[in-house]
Structure to design on (381 residues):
């Protein structure tokens, strides 16, 4: 079995690292169109048994040639490429995973279900942290509770040492961050799929010290396919992003000022895109590659045999000091690597286009996370 990873940034590098350490793939290739970023990944991965290649994903002809040589492909590049990559993967009969990030792209990928099934291909979008890991947690809840009243997912990647003004650091693409904040959040409510404004319904979430009281608010993308998969199984489901107190109100000012818009505006003799300016500012002022933490809580309530049950999940994952791997890299990339390995060893064998909750087996998945020191505490009340 051979696997190719597209993108040698933080997430792609961490996926390759995990595969080199735990998988039985005969060949691991990490590809990028940027020689500088590829060389950084090469230096970081050191003597690991990984191959490196300059490949431009926008060159579909070249990409097809490479996909045909590999059994599994993983996209660790911006979500805008994922639909085209999925089409190529189906055509070349290459199993395909991605880190997702956009509900509309995933819905387009789902339209390829029949073709993927006919070609014996497994396609799983949204394999990272949320969605991804949280999707499997939700599946675990549904498998344990007969009647599920609600599932409330709360996740955040945060700096250990928050700095003003936003108390946030770059842990993944700022384009993805903005997308989460401006696109509607998808909610499941009494069998209906409902859209709500992101950065709304602010609430408090408690964590042990040193974090204490945090804030959480609705954002886009985190629920992914869960509302559709569990339309008839869960009464209410939502997803909120965790941040340090005050972040939501501060960032909403950027939205109110139009700085997330993509329409060009005139500034002197030039036409500029406000969102590009905001991204440039965020990249300049926000810290990156600092020590971080990922906080997760999933609350659920339901009934078994008429008895009320609360099933809660908690996770606090820290920066890996020994290997210089961020908590966001660990909790996003390792689940993706694990899912690829479950395909490789035949534990995921269904063909088509699926959400993680539809095909990823819970026990093997959680067992593999535990091997990597990602500890999810389950509490039943």
């Amino acid at each position: 079995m051979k696997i190719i990873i597209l993108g040698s940034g933080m997430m792609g590098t961490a996926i390759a690292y995990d595969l080199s350490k735990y998988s039985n793939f005969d060949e691991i290739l990490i590809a990028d169109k940027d020689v500088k970023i590829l060389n950084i990944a090469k230096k970081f991965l050191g003597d690991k048994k990984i191959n490196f290649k300059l490949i431009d994903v926008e060159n579909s002809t070249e990409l097809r040639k490479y996909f045909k040589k590999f059994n599994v492909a993983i996209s660790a590049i911006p979500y805008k490429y994922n639909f085209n990559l999925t089409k190529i993967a189906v055509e070349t009969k290459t199993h395909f995973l991605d880190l997702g990030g956009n509900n509309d792209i995933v819905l387009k990928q789902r339209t390829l279900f029949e073709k993927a099934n006919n070609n014996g291909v497994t396609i799983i979008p949204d394999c990272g942290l949320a969605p991804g890991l949280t999707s499997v947690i939700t599946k675990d809840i549904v498998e344990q509770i007969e009647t599920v009243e609600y599932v409330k997912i709360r996740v955040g990647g945060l700096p250990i040492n928050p700095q003003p003004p936003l108390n946030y650091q770059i842990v993944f693409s700022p384009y993805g961050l903005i997308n989460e904040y401006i696109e509607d959040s998808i909610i499941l409510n009494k069998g209906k799929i409902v859209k709500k404004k992101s950065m709304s319904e602010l609430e408090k979430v408690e964590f042990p010290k040193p974090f204490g009281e945090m804030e959480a608010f609705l954002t886009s993308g985190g629920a992914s396919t869960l509302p559709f998969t569990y339309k008839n199984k869960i009464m209410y489901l939502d997803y909120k992003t965790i941040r340090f107190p005050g972040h939501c109100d501060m960032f909403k000012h950027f939205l109110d000022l139009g700085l997330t818009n993509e329409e060009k505006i005139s500034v002197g003799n030039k036409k500029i895109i406000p969102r590009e300016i905001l991204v440039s500012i965020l990249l300049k002022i926000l810290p990156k590659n600092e020590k971080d933490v990922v906080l997760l809580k999933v609350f659920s309530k339901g009934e078994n045999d008429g008895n009320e049950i609360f099933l809660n999940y908690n996770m606090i994952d820290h920066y890996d000091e020994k290997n210089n791997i961020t908590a966001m890299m660990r909790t996003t990339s390792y689940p993706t690597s694990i899912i690829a390995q479950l395909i490789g060893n035949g534990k995921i064998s269904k063909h088509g286009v699926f959400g993680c909750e539809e095909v990823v087996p819970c026990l093997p998945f959680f067992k593999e996370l535990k091997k990597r020191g990602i500890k999810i505490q389950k509490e039943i009340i």
